[in-house]
Specification:
Layout lengths: L9 H7 L4 H6 L7
């Protein structure tokens, strides 16, 4: 598994694991793509 750092882009996180999308939506980040 890839390491997530403070420099990792949200798009990269979603590419690595799309199941993280609900967490971003829950935090109010509705425009992810």
């Amino acid at each position: 598994m890839a390491a997530i750092t403070k420099d990792t882009l949200i798009g990269d996180i979603l590419t690595l694991d799309s199941t993280t999308a609900p967490y971003f939506l829950e935090m109010g980040m509705h425009c992810l793509g």
